[in-house]
Write a structure and sequence with these properties.
By secondary structure, the chain is mainly alpha-helical. It contains three helices and no strands. The protein starts with a helix and ends in an 8-residue tail after the last helix.
């Protein structure tokens, strides 16, 4: 199993646990907030490059 697959499986497991233990809106805030926080943590030049490349090229 590749590293990306392991991360995906772990993310799904954590998501299911969060849905069981927390109210749905808290889980939603976590699911939306983590990628937004990661995007905002990038430098302006990194954000421009991320917007410029296509989704297929993100894994390279």
């Amino acid at each position: 199993m590749s590293n990306n697959a392991k991360i995906a499986v772990g993310g799904v497991a954590v998501g299911l646990i969060l849905l069981i233990w927390l109210p749905w809106w808290v889980s939603f805030l976590i699911v939306v907030g983590v990628p937004v926080a990661a995007y905002l943590a990038l430098d302006p030049s990194q954000r421009r490059r991320l917007r410029r490349i296509t989704r297929k090229e993100l894994g390279r």
